[in-house]
Specification:
Shape: elongated
Low-confidence stretches: 234-254, 323-328
Structural class: alpha+beta
Strand content: 35-45%
Strand order of the largest sheet: 5-6-3-2-1-4-7
Order of helices and strands: EEEHEEEEHEEEHEEEHHEHEEEEEH
Oligomer: single chain
Largest sheet: 7 strands, mixed
Length: 328
């Protein structure tokens, strides 16, 4: 069989062993999901190259009955001990094309819970970031929109969220950001009742402003006028979630709240929030003082300073004490 490897990823099993999975495509453009055995992992990882073409022999077709499917093909292919692949230049096998599932279809419920889809959209907003630690996984919640104005929420867990943060934090760019997520999972949000998406843990790929004909075509479909009205993501919200206060008690217990929500809480609470620095406040004693309290029999130098912050038109004050001062 003449095939092209259009996607491949490594799966880490519960016992720590690894195996290789991929999607291959034939000369007609038909695709099938492939799984290898963990004991053959090292052999296949050295042979298989993404986007390359091969002659494939002796794959074992079985029913595609896994919990999540990356192809509509009812079968998948198992590479056994008799399977071989020989690299060759086979131009008649077409190159890979994304099969993007429209955001509108997700919102109308036109999706299957056991299928993983490719999705593309413009980064509309960053809703929140959640710091890892304290038993909580790090994640970034964003929204994507299409040219018709349909909007869907997307949660990027773990390294996928960090990839977005690492891209946006050092880039002082302007204009829209095109997001592509492959093998994304869609389910109903238990709070809003609306469909929402997230990455799959093993096999998703996140591409940001990818140089690709389909990404260029998607961007061009908006037109210059529409794109000019889509702002770049707020740099104040996209902060490195790996940076936490030295006192992890606060960040591990706190849910994410906006400055407005905290000011309207009406009672003490633990929360994680974020804002843009607008100024500094210094008391008449400066940024430090000598403490002689009961817990400090000898005078101890302590630090305190206040930072004015703002987000979404609402203002607040961050107060930094002692060790937190050194992190600022």
């Amino acid at each position: 069989m003449l095939i092209r490897v259009v996607d491949m990823w490594v799966v880490i099993e519960k016992n720590g062993q690894q195996h290789l999975e991929m999607v291959i495509q034939d000369g007609k453009g038909d695709k099938i999901h492939v799984t290898t055995r963990n004991r053959d992992f090292q052999d296949w990882i050295e042979v298989v190259k993404e986007h390359e073409t091969f002659y494939l022999y002796n794959g074992e077709p079985v029913k595609n009955d896994g919990p999540f499917k990356v192809c509509f093909n009812p079968l998948k292919l198992i590479f056994n001990g008799g399977t071989t692949m020989t690299k060759a230049d086979i131009p008649e096998v077409p190159t890979h094309k994304y099969n993007f599932h429209p955001i509108e279809h997700f919102l109308k419920g036109n999706y299957k819970h056991d299928m993983l889809y490719d999705v593309i959209g413009v980064l509309q907003d960053v809703l929140k970031t959640q710091m890892g630690g304290g038993g909580r996984k790090s994640c970034v919640n964003i929204t994507l929109r299409d040219v018709e104005g349909n909007i869907i929420e997307l949660t990027l867990w773990g390294d996928y969220g960090k990839q977005l943060i690492n891209y946006t934090t050092p880039n002082n760019f302007s204009g829209p950001t095109i997001i592509i997520l492959t093998h994304a999972w869609c389910k109903q949000n238990t709070v809003s009742g609306l469909p929402s998406m997230s990455n799959a843990w093993n096999d998703s790929r996140l591409y940001i402003n990818l140089e690709h004909p389909q990404a260029d075509e998607f961007k061009a479909s908006f037109g210059a006028t529409v794109l000019s009205n889509i702002p770049a993501p707020s740099q104040s919200l996209i902060a490195d979630s790996s940076i936490q206060s030295a006192n992890n008690f606060w960040t591990s217990l706190g849910e994410v709240k906006s400055i407005r929500a905290i000011s309207e809480a009406g009672k003490d609470c633990f929360a994680t929030t974020i804002g843009t620095t607008t100024g500094f406040n210094v008391s008449k004693f400066g940024w430090y003082f000598e403490s002689t309290g009961n817990a400090d029999p000898e005078p101890v130098t302590k630090f305190k300073f206040e930072v004015d912050v703002e987000y979404d038109g609402h203002k607040g004050i961050f107060v930094f004490w002692d060790k937190d001062y050194s992190l600022y």
